[in-house]
Amino acid sequence: MFLPSHSHRSWLGAIVLLTALLVAGCSPIERLTADHPPSYYQVERQLPDSLTDVPTRFLVLGDTQAGWRAEHKFYRRENWVTWKHLLVPFYQLYLLGNGIVGAINWKRQRPDYGGSGRTLMRTVLDRAAQETESDFILHLGDMALHDGRRADHWEGFLDEYKHSRTPLLDTYPVLPVIGNHEYANDSTGWANYDAVFDYPRFYVIDTPRAALFVVDSNYIVDQHQDLDDDRQDALFDRWFVAADSSAEAAWLERELAKRADRPYKIVAMHHPLVTFSWHEKDWFSRSNGRELPHKRNRLIALLQEYDVQVVLSGHEHLYEHNALRYRYDDADRTLHQVISSGGGVPPRRVARSDEFDQRMRRYEDWGLDVENVTQNARYHYTDVRITAEQLILDTYAVLDDDPQHIERIERITIPAPPPPTSAAE
Question: What SS3 class is residue 281?
Fold first, then answer.
């Protein structure tokens, strides 16, 4: 009879321990409301649908979900191509340890990286909101730590943003935009989101000079394949742009038409319409939906028709500003795509020149005149001010992970458009 040696028993013990960690610690898919009273998970709706003050001011925070240690401390090429291998003995073992621990946590569905960044940005946002006396904070999506179907991933978000020493959710009105990590196209993911936020997928906030249209772009870019193609097409026609002029107008078409004379119009959606970063490919992945580039062009045409000046998006884990130039009614116009998604998630790198050129050619092929104004891979937030004369977006980066060291990296100033000809006569 075979008896394992001491070394074999050690390896067997390690395998048994790892297996137990993987099985026992897996995060289940379940409703958030199963284990908590409503006071734990419900976020009070503190903002009316219509604001009356001029100027109006709000802060933009995007992408606060957790990262994976295996990705950020092991998997990436830059972790291995580093001078630390020459100066730090056995640095490879440190990376390997991060890879093993991170892989176990990934298998258990326990996001394990980026806590310090989220804490930093909560401190920064809390101070900025107090100093600016902002009306609200707009969160551009990806709030659940990783998977909105898992109750403990929402618990992690609530523990940090509602039950911590900087409870932004209880201190300020927070308006949510649904991101892909909320899994809102899944029934459990939607139930968890709906238990936390008293906001629908689509809504409008009116101010005397502007309208903010919040939409759920997961109906367009379905990254988790929760919708079949026919259902996805029908939802786009119902909520964004109707299939043809004879059909009933979509929700966004109707809401834009109601506010056609509003000087400033801003759309907030998680997935950016134009980007030179990692997720530009989302619009060309067949698994995300049918004919996505055509849907994007239809949506862009609608925004151009109503002179929407700004689209606020997240998703990319960095800051990016792109100017989409076009001509409408014999006038040159610009639609600003502002990606503000450095709210605590570990930032991604900016695009390389070859990636940049490839994406530019693709926009040109689709008839879009896009100028990339800037990219920045630091933690950041955006401050939006709406006055009688102009719309101003200031984006501030956090330097050296120091909440006291804040630097403005860009200002976008958009003057009020002239009144319609009929109103001027």
Answer: helix
Tokens 């834009």 correspond to 256
Predicted structure pTM score: 0.93
3-class DSSP assignment, residue 198: coil
The predicted structure's pLDDT at residue 228: 97
Separation of alpha carbons 351 and 170, rounded Å:
37
Cβ–Cβ under 8 Å, residues 412 and 392: yes
What is the spatial distance between Cα 42 and Cα 39, in angstroms, rounded to a whole number?
Answer: 6
Q: Any idea what the Cα angle at residue 111 is, between residues 35 and 189, rounded to 5°?
A: 50
Interatomic CA distance for residues 313 and 324, integer angstroms = 14
**Domain coordinates of the chain in residue numbers?**
28-66+115-417, 68-113
| Whether 392 contacts 384, CB under 8 Å | yes
> Which of 181-195, 204-218, 333-347, 411-425 shows the lowest per-residue confidence on average (mean pLDDT)?
411-425
- What pLDDT was estimated at residue 16? 47
Angle at 395 between CA 394 and CA 397, to 5 degrees: 145
What does the buried/exposed string (b/e) look like for 308-346 if buried means 16 or more CB atoms within 10 Å of the residue's CB? bbbbbbbbbbbbbbbebebeeeeeeeebbbbbbbbbbbb
Q: What is the mean pLDDT of residues 333-346?
A: 97
Torsion of CA 262, 268, 269, 275, to 10 degrees: 100
Name the one residue in this structure whose structure tokens are 């939006």.
384
3-state secondary structure of 286: helix
pLDDT over threshold 90, residue 26:
no
Burial zone of 400 (CB within 10 Å; 0-12 exposed, 13-18 middle, 19+ buried):
exposed
- Cβ 136 vs Cβ 266: under 8 Å: no
pLDDT in tens, 395-410: 999 999 999 999 999 9
Give DSSP secondary structure letters for 10-22.
HHHHHHHHHHHHH
Distance CA 86, CA 84 (A): 5
CATH number of 28-66+115-417: 3.60.21.10
Strand partners for 176: 139
Q: What is the pLDDT of residue 19?
A: 53
From the list 214, 118, 211, the residue with the least C-alpha distance to 168 is 118
CB 416 within 8 A of CB 389: yes
Using alpha carbons, list the distances in angstroms from residue 417 to 113, 214, 291, 382: 45, 22, 34, 22
Q: Would you tell me the crossing angle of helices 229-239 and 251-258 to the nearest 10 degrees?
A: 10
